[in-house]
Amino acid sequence: MPLHAHKEALLVLEDGRTFRGESFGAEGETFGEAVFSTGMTGYQETLTDPSYHQQVVVMTAPHVGNTGVNDEDPESKKIWVAGYVVRDPARVSSSWRAQRTLDDDLRDQSVVGISGIDTRALTRHLRERGAMRVGISTIDTDPEALLAKVRASAEMSGANLSEAVSTQETYVVEAKGEKRFTVAALDLGIKEMTPERMAERGIEVHVLPATATLEDVKAVNPDGLFYSNGPGDPAATTGQVELLQKALAEDIPYFGICFGNQLFGRALGFGTYKLKYGHRGINQPVMDLTTRKVEVTAHNHGFAVDAPVGEETKTEFGIATVSHVNLNDDCVEGLELKDAETGKLKGFSVQYHPEAAAGPHDAGYLFDRFIATMAKEV
Ligand SMILES: NC(=O)CC[C@H](N)C(=O)O
User: Which InterPro entries match (predicted)?
Assistant: First the structure.
């Protein structure tokens, strides 16, 4: 299937750097935070990850769209990225699983993209100057005019976005085989693979809206509480931090992924901060400080927890420690909370993605650790 005939498109960064390319996907104008993903595979999963809400994703992989689009790989019901920047879109989709082209999907879902961009130069710019706001337009190709709109657009710092992407209604993902545990999972932007990974281990997952209360959580009679990944600034997501504190005070075992790690950190009294350009890709090396084992892991985060590595922190809920660190930049990648008296694990979280779609499955053991925590075995 050939690409549609394309017209000129313009990309302008907040600091004034400008790139010219061609329209890819929908025509129009879009704004967001420019971030780059280094994943060489998994563009469908990236596009449909709700954590990318209000972000314009730059793909460092030079060829995007080669295997087209299917209805099996998405991580949610729609494409969430605010815009999409690629070097060279595939002219032909080639896979027995392909149902449509990527270009068609972007058009159908009104996602504005740009192709023909020197994504290597753009990525180096973001790496050196940091993530920043960006605009893409096929209708206003005057750089000065677009720059003014970029500078007037919303910032990621201070943005509370999880409620906008969350389910409105609770739904249940049934356990596969024998049901062993019930988990209340707060949907802050959950990816479909996460309840799936729990269900295949015998967990019945009740996915709750981001606005759920402690009563809603307890109504499920859960063995454990889970917080998902999600978009936005953890410092702006206060209601969910309060809910987590109440659950920890009631000794409900906890597991959090990505945003769920940042909110766990805040619930324990640590701060969070914005990374210069974040981690987005599927080959980030992380060390488990307990076992000293290194995992290759999938990431998508722009914020991180500020907690001391190698030190115990006394909190009102127990003793907190940093469990995992990133070997590229020493950033905190996991937290653990133990009961001050018994030393039993009360909760833990990781900044990366053990459900890994796309990505390596090195960190899949963390779902088993959640089961062991709920079973009070660790
Ligand atoms: N994938 C996520 O959960 C991202 C968390 C948060 N929005 C960040 O960018 O750091």
Answer: Anth_synth/Amidotransfase, CarbamoylP_synth_ssu, CarbamoylP_synth_ssu_N, CarbP_synth_ssu_N_sf, Class_I_gatase-like, CPSase_GATase1, GATASE
Percent helix, strand and coil across the chain, each rounded to 5?
A: 25, 35, 40
Measured CA angle at 153 (ends 259, 63), to 5 deg: 65
- Write down the pLDDT at residue 3: 53
Amino acid residing at 260 = G
Given the cut 0.95, state whether the ipTM is greater than it. yes
Which CATH superfamily includes the segment(s) 162-374?
A: Class I glutamine amidotransferase (GATase) domain (3.40.50.880)
262 is in an annotated binding site: yes
All structural domains of the chain with their residue ranges? 8-151, 162-374
Architecture per CATH, 8-151:
3-Layer(bba) Sandwich (3.50)
Cis bond upstream, residue 358 (ω within 30):
yes
- Report d(CA 33, CA 201) in Å as an integer: 36
**Interval 175-184: pLDDT, tens:** 999 999 999 9
Q: Residue 219: in which H helix or E strand, if any? A: helix 214-219
Spatial CA neighbour of 273 closest among 232, 234, 230: 234
CA distance 118 to 37: 14
* pLDDT band for position 260 (cuts 50, 70, 90): very high
For residue 262 the two structure tokens come to 């940042």
Residue 162 CA to ligand 1 center (angstroms) comes to 10
Catalytic residue among 14, 163, 333, 355: 355
- 258: annotated active-site residue: yes
Residues at CB less than 6 angstroms from ligand 1 = 51, 229-232, 258-259, 300-303
Q: What are phi and psi of 285, to 5 degrees?
A: -85, 125
**Structure token digits, residue 39:** 């994943």
Q: pLDDT at position 1, please?
A: 42
Quick check: 184 and 167 in contact, CB under 8 A?
A: no
Distance CA 205, CA 166 (A): 15
Angle at which helix 238-249 crosses helix 259-267, to 10 degrees, equals 70
